[in-house]
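Q&A log
Question type: sequence-to-structure
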Amino acid sequence: MNSSERVLSDTVLTHGLSQGEKPCAIFKSIRGETPYTYADLRRDSLAVAAALAAFGVQPGQPVLIFEKTSPQLFAAFWGAMALGAVPAIMPPPTPKQKEELYWSSHVRLFERIGPAALLVNSSLIPVFSNRCGAWADRLVDLHVAAAGAPIPTTALPILKAADVAFLQHSSGTTALKKGVMLTHERVFAQLDRYGATIGFEPQDLVASWLPLYHDMGLITSFLMPLVAGATVVSIDPFEWLVRPAMLLEAVRDHRAGFSWMPNFAFAHLVNVVVDTGAHDLSSLRMIGNCSEPCKLSVHEAFTAHFAPSALRPEAVQVCYAMAENVFAVSQTPTGSPARAVRIDRKAIERNTVRFVAEDEPGLDVMSCGRLLSDMWIRLVDDQGRDVGEGQAGEIVIAGPSLFEGYLALPERTAEVLHDDGYHTRDLGFVVDDELFVLGRVDDLIIAYGRNFMAHEIEATVSAVDGIKPGRVVAFGLDTPGASGREMAVLFELLDGTEPTAAVAAVRRAIDASAGLLPRYVEVAPLGSLKKTTSGKISRSLNRAEFERSLEAFKEGAQ
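Response status: OK
Response body:
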């Protein structure tokens, strides 16, 4: 504490002295609301720091936190950081996760990064004790720790701006998660620039249901408001799934000015919220769409659906962000509606950007806005050469908030972090100094001699009547005896949908939008498609499962 340099935990915990009675958070649930002040946060964080110090945790050591959205989660993060440890918020186990995969992959993660402590919700201590093997001796009951006596601030180490402040674990299956190392100075560089870009102030209020183990929730709905001394209305993601309108109620009741969500959540709210007149959203200065490609159809549907709620079109904006840059790379301006362009589908398969008129068939791509100040990008081809004007390429970024590397993964760090910056594996192009992102290079499906973006195929299928929204996956695969690489499309159905008719409708929709007839178009059992811990459908896991089923079918036929 009391460093002469800017340190995140010093800044946040000092709010407990300067504005102790102000809520840092209002925890909203189906049962009601609970305010949590900056004084509460300071007290509980110092208690967690005391417990970790007594446990033997040293500065620089990782501390993993397994806790739902709660005051204890907030205190765990800042308490570990104040002690000089490196906190990382992790997804706690839930009934929806594949149990064996969750535990085996987490144990492998523990073995790779060697956490000094596992701060765990009291109710989860027994199951962690049974499933963590040799790592069970690192368990610390978070609820007991947060209720203990605070550590004297004189006993805390003096931290430096260049110290690693925390880890953000990238999306994906847990065994493949990469711990993104971020220093205090890099995080401040992001918060300063992003806050200035969107006009975020200490008197502002954020409404959020986002999980804090994902970079969008961690930065926009936790670090940014708390570092600024603002307030966040925080809803646990599982409670939001039960009653999505809680987010709108939070905006209405607390006059929230900011919120962020991934694209699927915008579509979900359109589908489930009927009484739009019950929610006054006029206070929103920005509701940001990020984390996955923003679809124009969803953007327009959300804006139109909530117009009766006094939602202004210019409040619905788009951001391009990633954990490796702390968060935002670019942001659409909040004073005017986000724009889109329509490009030729065939041309973009060759990475050529050719615009077409609105009344012509094409691919609509939303702008992700202009770069934050002091950010820099290149667009490169698969050989690392700059692409020409009017061409799409892989986005390479550089700037003051770029990460230090992946913890305990030097080879993976070297693959993506070069002298010219971070190679994002995202495809994009630039028009009028605005960045347009097409999707992941890894999501590119090369099949039948053509290039397809998986998320475009998935969006087409999700729009077919009878398909369960968001429960679609498309991927390429090599099958023995085929003349080339092929595509598979799997999807789940809503209750009452006839499977044969659904398959025929999906084939027609894909043919109409992409001129394609995939070899494999199949119905998946309800709930069988695998997701990452951030809630996204995992193409790699589902591809592996599908390939195993093909191999089993082949062996059974012999």
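Response note: The first strand starts at residue 23 and ends at 29.
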